[in-house]
Amino acid sequence: MIIAIDGPAASGKGTLACRIARHFGLAWLDTGLLYRAVARDVRAAGHSLEDALAAAAAARALDPATLDDPALRGPGAGDAASIVARIAEVRAALLEFQRAFAHRPSGAVLDGRDIGTVVCPDADVKIFVTATPEVRAQRRYQERKNRGESVTYEAVLEDIRRRDERDAGREAAPMQQARDAVLLDTSDLDIEAAFDTAVGVISRKVGQRGHP
Ligand code: CDP
Predict the structure, then answer these.
(1) pLDDT tens digit sequence for 29-79
(2) Does the residue 205 lie in any domain?
(3) CATH code of the domain covering residue 184
(4) Hey, is 106 helix, strand or coil?
């Protein structure tokens, strides 16, 4: 059982993917962390994020054991990730790890931008989670404020718009809803309602409520 969850920044897909994985007893991979970690490693090696050779080398050398680094959630990490994520060689280098994770016998939930379209086109269930940029910015602003960061709503909205444009506009595996994905707009849904809707979608798809 493979569940693919895609969507733009701060759409709620991470929280949703985590809860879905727990509910159905599946492993979970937040694929955004891979791109965040590549950006971290490119910078740590003293290279520019635009340096395709350095970024591809960092992607090939990525150690998945470093994905729990709290710095990957820090300010600027998402924006930096979206710069290296445009590079086709970076994406190619990360593909095998993601596919191997997805195809484990016990099943998996992966969330990102291209899971339903490129990484797991054969996923059993695909959900594209979205919300208006303003709602997403408000959520991310609250999250960052709660972590004690000094940040404004306007700056967060600007970051989200820039990232949407970069992720949807790139040539390599752009963010898009797979043709067979179910659209879940969470603009007017809290996490509980979004979770219930997603569980309903998954249970219908797999034909047996609760146990895919
Ligand atoms: O949590 P948030 O939605 O803000 O970001 P994320 O999922 O951690 O992704 C960070 C960046 O990595 C995105 O803006 C994308 O540019 C890139 N990414 C991607 O290109 N493909 C994926 N499957 C996951 C993330």
Answers:
(1) 999 999 999 999 999 999 999 999 999 999 999 999 999 999 999 889 999
(2) no
(3) 3.40.50.300
(4) coil
Q: By alpha-carbon position, which residue is closest to atom 17 of ligand 1? A: 82
Please state, in angstroms and rounded to a whole number, the distance separating the CA atoms of residues 79 and 101.
25
Q: For ligand 1, is residue 31 a contact (CB within 6 Å)?
A: yes
pTM, whole model, 2 decimals? 0.95
Tokens representing residue 9 in the block: 């920044």
Domain that residue 43 falls in = 2-199
Contact 110, 102 (CB under 8 A): yes
- For 33, residues 6+ apart whose C-beta sits below 8 A from its C-beta are 67, 72
| Ligand 1 pocket member 32 (CB < 6 A) | yes
Of 120, 135, 167, the one to substitute when testing ligand 1's pocket (max ligand atoms within 8 A of C-beta) is 167
How far is the centre of ligand 1, averaged over its atoms, from the C-alpha of 130 (Å)? 14
Question: For residue 77, which atom of ligand 1 is closest to its CA?
Answer: 10
Q: How far apart are CA 209 and CA 74, in angstroms?
A: 37
* Residue 5 CB partners (closer than 8 Å, separation 6+): 13, 16, 17, 20, 109, 110, 111, 112, 115, 126, 127, 128, 129
Q: Which atom of ligand 1 is nearest to the CA of 167?
A: 16
